[in-house]
Amino acid sequence: MNVTAKNHDEVSALLTVTVDRADYKDKVEKQLHNYAKNAQVPGFRKGKVPMSLVKRQYEAPIAFEEINKLVNESLNNYITENKLRMVGQPVPEPVNDFDHTAEQLSVAFEVGYEPDFTIDLSKYEAPHYKVEASEKEIGQSIENMQKRFAEQVPQDKIGKDSYVALEVSQVVEDDAEGTHNHPAKKVTINAENKEAFKLVKSLKMDESVKVSKTDLQANEDLAKELGFSKADAEHLHHDEIEVKVKDFYGLNNHELNQELFDKVYGEGNIKTEEELKDKVKTELDEYFQQNADVYFVNNILEQITEKEEVQLPENFLAKWLVFSNQNITNEAQAKEVLENEKASIKHQIIEGKLMNDNDIKLDYEDVLAQAEQLVRNQLAIYGIHHLPDEEVQKYAVEMLKDQEQVRQISSEVAMAKLKDVILEKATKKETAISHDEFVEMLKK
Are strands 125-132 and 2-9 parallel, antiparallel or unpaired? Predict the structure, then answer.
């Protein structure tokens, strides 16, 4: 076996894999003898099928499979040994005359590489904001804790301080045909959900109001507040929905006392209001700083993408798009698609280059730790802050049984490591800013 390269330019080449018949002949013969021993062919006893008959039927596909294995193995070894960072996947050249009995076979592949370039992070500079939580934000966070564990208070009628539990269902006409399995949606609203609250605020318990499909589609806010995405509203099976009041109540916020501290942070971990404020401030500051760090890193990456010259293997990429995408039928169409994707490809190459040059690697412990943090974040939404570590890990391991979750979490871990590298090596222009100012800046 041998692999030779003919470079088209610095970022693309034709790799040719040459396989000698001697490389696969013995494996083919071994498989043919196994077939001959076990084949059941009418007119012959088991194990007595003539080898000529077995060869005629099986030799070509077996040889093709072995040759394919050898070619792929040789190609992958060449790419690994030469540390080639591929763009796209190798595109095989057509083989017009495949003869498995030939003493030598060659298969060629068009390939594209990432260009060889260096990125000096220290020459890139951006504002690095120091964002601190204000007294107002600390107070709001503590009030949210009190609301989370608030006591429900029955009411005689819906008022501006009411929370209203609704059942939202599609209205099925008497003459409608077919089966109808549209589970009712259960949503809870308050005065902040302006459109839905306006719709039901005059209703009593178990009273309902109907909304046409047309009106729901025209009022996106109302649809969202009633649990329908824009797509859901557009694809309703019936012409009306019914919105029924199932319950309404006020809330008495939980007192700011030891019982609340224990519910939120575990027994005895917080003992005074001052400790609670300090804890909340620390958490908010960490959260705000994470956002500020991400902003800094994204700013640096945008600068790099804009300023670094990154040569793309465009001719190869056009061929690869035609080869790999059945909706792209010719290279002219592929080049049009590529033109729209250039910035994204360049960005991916830059991220990959930074990870490779800074030796960023992932292992299972990294991915598991990130999954555990995601579990803790999800539990915190429901006010659970002190689940034992072994329980958190059990949920995380279950999460990682989903390959899509593994892919997504691995990507998050890689980006987190890249973020740390950029924070360390890029030049920071330290700037103090209020959270409100930071939020306004992000909006812009």
Answer: unpaired
